[in-house]
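Before the break, one more example. Copy the sequence into your notebook; we will annotate it together after we see the structure.
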Amino acid sequence: MIVDNVGRVEAVALPRWGNPDGPTYAEHRFGVRFDGEQRFAGVTVARTMTAGWDWDGNDWANGPFLTATIIDMRFS
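Here is what the structure looks like once it is written out:
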């Protein structure tokens, strides 16, 4: 986990079960980077998340496969 100097989580890496390199499933390194932040109903969340296999803390060996931006959040 990478945390900035004010306590915001910038990135998380963990082992994940999958098959990014082919037909055989195994445990692979997986990571998510969080960028920006925004508030909804007093709750601060990451604005953008980028995820991929083979993450080393700075970049992905095979490129990210998912980028998502939170545009709205509702609580019940």
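The chain has a mean pLDDT of 89. The longest strand covers residues 26-40. Try to locate both features in your own notes.
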